[in-house]
C-alpha cells in the first residue's frame, strides 16, 4: 500500500534528523544510519507499528511583502494563559493542546486581543522552547533543534467568535512582521499528512513544502512502558515542479517522486 502526497519535492530526499525522545542524531551519522536501518527492518517485519506522517513547510519572512496592520500583538504570559483557560474554546481539544505548551515550558507566543477579548493565538518556538518540548512532551521528537535565525510556528488558533472575518490572515501578517522584527530569517512548521484542509491553507499562505516527518510507535511492551517513539525528519534536496508528488511506501519511507 502506498500513500501519494502532492508536493513540490525532488525525487531525492535525505534523512536530516533521527529523533528518539529528547535526543536526536544527524541522519548521516553512524547512529542515525543504524536507527534508520533498524526502523526499515522492523516496520517490514511486524505490523505492531503505528505511523504518523507529517509534511514539513518552510517560509522566509523577508520574501513576503510587508502589509501594514493596525494590530497590537500581546506576548503570552501567565496572566494571559489563565484568562484563556477560562475561555469557552478551552474545552476544544486542539486549543487545549496549545495551552498545554505553557505547562511544558514554552514561552514565546503572541495573541491578538481587542477590548479584552482574544481573537487569534499562536506560538513562535525558539530553540529554548523546542528543548522544553523535547524534555516534557511525548511528541518531543517532532521538535529537533533549529539552526541560527530559525523559529517554528505551532498551534494557530482563531477563537470561535472571530472566525470568518479575515482575522486569521491579518494576524498572520502581523506575526510575519514580528518575526522580521525578531531577526527570524526562516520559519518552519509541520502539518499532518491526513489534514488536507490544513495543508491547503498553509500552502495558500505562501509556505513551501520542504520535506516530511515519519513518526514510528511500536506496540511492544518495553516501548510502551518507556513511551518511546522514533521520528525521521526528511528534507528535500531541492524544489522542482509543483506538479510532482512524493510517494511514501506503507512503512513511511519516501520511495520516489512522480510527475
Distance between the termini: 19 Å
The count of domains is 2
**Any low-confidence stretches, pLDDT <50, length ≥5?**
1-11, 239-259
SSE series:
EEEHEEHHEEHEHEHEHEEE
Number of helices: 7
Report Rg: 19 Å
Structural class of the helix and strand makeup? alpha+beta
What composes the largest sheet?
A: 10 strands, mixed
Spatial ordering of strands, largest sheet? 3-2-11-10-4-9-8-7-6-5
Which range does the strand content fall in? 25-35%
Mean pLDDT: 82
| Helix fraction bin | 25-40%
Query: Given the C-alpha coordinates, what overall shape results?
Result: globular
| Count of extended strands | 13
List the SSEs and their pairings.
Blueprint: E1 2-6, E2 13-20, E3 23-26, H1 30-45, E4 49-59, E5 73-75, H2 78-85, H3 93-103, E6 109-114, E7 117-125, H4 127-136, E8 150-158, H5 167-181, E9 186-192, H6 196-204, E10 208-218, H7 221-226, E11 230-236, E12 245-249, E13 254-258
Parallel strand pairs: 8-9
Antiparallel strand pairs: 1-12, 2-3, 2-11, 4-9, 4-10, 5-6, 6-7, 7-8, 10-11, 12-13
Describe the structure.
The chain has helices spanning 30-45, 78-85, 93-103, 127-136, 167-181, 196-204, 221-226; strands at residues 2-6, 13-20, 23-26, 49-59, 73-75, 109-114, 117-125, 150-158, 186-192, 208-218, 230-236, 245-249, 254-258. By secondary structure, it is an alpha+beta fold. It folds into two domains: 1-58 and 191-259, no CATH class; 61-184, Aminopeptidase. A hairpin with a 2-residue loop joins strand 6 (109-114) and strand 7 (117-125).
Amino acid at each position: 500500500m502506498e500513500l501519494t502526497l502532492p508536493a513540490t519535492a525532488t525525487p531525492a530526499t535525505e534523512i536530516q534528523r533521527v529523533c528518539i525522545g529528547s535526543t536526536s542524531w544527524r541522519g548521516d551519522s553512524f547512529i542515525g544510519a543504524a536507527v534508520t536501518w533498524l526502523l526499515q527492518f522492523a516496520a517490514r517485519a511486524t505490523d505492531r507499528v503505528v505511523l504518523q506522517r507529517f509534511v514539513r513547510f518552510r517560509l522566509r519572512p523577508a520574501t513576503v511583502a510587508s502589509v501594514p496592520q493596525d494590530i497590537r500583538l500581546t506576548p503570552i504570559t501567565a496572566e494571559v494563559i489563565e484568562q484563556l483557560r477560562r475561555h469557552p474554546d478551552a474545552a476544544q481539544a486542539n486549543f487545549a493542546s496549545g495551552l498545554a505548551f505553557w505547562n511544558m515550558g514554552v514561552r514565546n507566543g503572541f495573541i491578538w486581543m481587542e477590548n479584552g477579548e482574544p481573537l487569534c493565538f499562536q506560538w513562535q518556538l525558539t530553540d529554548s522552547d523546542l528543548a522544553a518540548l523535547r524534555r516534557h512532551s511525548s511528541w518531543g521528537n517532532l521538535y529537533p533543534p533549529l539552526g541560527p535565525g530559525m523559529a517554528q510556528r505551532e498551534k494557530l488558533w482563531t477563537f470561535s467568535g472571530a472566525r470568518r472575518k479575515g482575522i486569521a490572515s491579518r494576524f498572520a501578517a502581523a506575526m510575519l512582521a514580528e518575526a522580521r522584527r525578531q531577526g527570524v530569517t526562516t520559519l518552519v512548521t509541520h502539518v499532518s499528512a491526513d489534514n488536507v484542509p490544513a495543508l491547503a491553507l498553509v500552502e495558500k499562505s505562501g509556505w513551501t513544502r520542504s520535506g516530511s516527518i515519519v513518526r514510528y510507535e511500536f506496540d511492544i511492551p518495553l516501548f510502551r512502558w518507556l513511551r518511546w517513539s522514533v521520528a525521521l525528519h526528511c528534507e528535500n534536496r531541492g524544489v522542482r515542479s509543483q506538479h510532482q508528488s512524493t510517494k511514501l511506501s506503507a512503512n513511511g519511507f519516501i520511495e520516489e517522486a512522480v510527475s
